[in-house]
Amino acid sequence: MRLVVIVALVIGAILGVSFWVSQQSGGQGDEIVVYSARQEHLIKPLFDRFTEQTGIRVRYVTDDAGPLLQRLRAEGGNTRADMLITVDAGNLWQAAEQDVLAPVESDTLERNVPANLRDADGRWFGLSVRARTIVYSTERVAPEDLSTYEALADAEWEGRLCLRTSKKVYNQSLVATMIARHGEERTEEIVGGWVDNLATQPFSNDTAVMEAIVAGQCDVGIVNTYYFGRLQERDGDDTPLALFWPNQDAEGVHVNVSGAGITRHASNPDAALQLLEWLSEQEAQEMFGALNMEYPVRPDTEWTERVRSWGDFHGDDIDVSEAGRRQVDAVMLMDRVGYR
Ligand code: FE
Predict the structure, then answer these.
(1) Ligand 1 center to 89 CA (angstroms)
(2) 68 neighbors 261 (Cβ within 8 angstroms)
(3) pLDDT in tens, the chain (340 residues)
């Protein structure tokens, strides 16, 4: 079994190298390679602008976070990747833990990215903030009925809650953060209460949660705000759903990041750092958030009109690394309470 894995890794590494060699022929000048779990339409406009301003070309591969991380590990010192971009602090933390990211020191990044949204050792930096909040039916729920994530475990929500699957890292990070805030015992009570209140089996994605609320299958759910924005753009602003900002008198709304780090075996680390720093500057920050209706990491960057329409909120300022550090505990806790 072990031999099979090693052979597969070697073949994977060779294929990776040959792919890049063929991409390289005829190339000249400064160039960096990015592995990105963020989709092409969310990153390409940024890379194009960066190239315009610096002359540094950016090649990229997009895939899910898991396969990209596996590929980086398999390629080891042969990788062509200079930078990894991925979503969720849980994934960024895993990448750092698996030693595929190099620590960097940068005054620019330390100034532009709040300390709780980046790795303490400089191996990754948050570049956009995503808020995971409560969404509700404006036909069957009054905002006064809502208060906290914890209260969704109360009996009044029995048969009225819809959730996305616990397999998704977003929910693992949410529960991991709750463990950091409340301890295992209290978190288990809350998440167990959610499971008791479920109207139906967990859904595979956030959009399906909101569609179930619109269809009357349930009344409340928990989603990332940009999915709500996409639904509004698809179905119109009069869709009978609204966002609610919970825990405003306590720690605040659960926030996470998408972010990036320089790879351990980067062949062009200086240009990669230049891109990473550029992504934290004002112009890129405006674009980075706007492309996916997320929030900039810089407090001094303006939000887009649609994002502003959802109102202001106080976000949890916990170190997002907790999402990675407690991920295993979160997965086991959700399993214990039967959250599938
Ligand atoms: Fe997402």
Answers:
(1) 13
(2) no
(3) 455 555 555 555 544 443 443 344 334 469 999 999 999 999 999 999 999 999 999 999 999 999 999 999 999 999 999 999 999 999 999 999 999 999 999 999 999 999 999 999 999 999 999 999 999 999 999 999 999 999 999 999 999 999 999 999 999 999 999 999 999 999 999 999 999 999 999 999 999 999 999 999 999 999 999 999 999 999 999 999 999 999 999 999 999 999 999 999 999 999 999 999 999 999 999 998 899 999 999 999 999 999 999 999 999 999 999 999 999 999 999 999 999 9
Its CATH class, for the domain covering 131-254+313-336, is: alpha beta
* Residue among 90, 133, 126 at smallest CA distance from 223: 133
**CB hemisphere CA count around 105 (13 angstroms):** 0
Q: How far does the centroid of ligand 1 lie from the alpha carbon of residue 39, in Å?
A: 10
State phi, psi for 164 to the nearest 5 degrees. Answer: -80, 160
CATH of region 2-129+257-303, choose from 3.20.20.30, 3.40.50.1820, 3.40.190.10, 3.40.50.300: 3.40.190.10
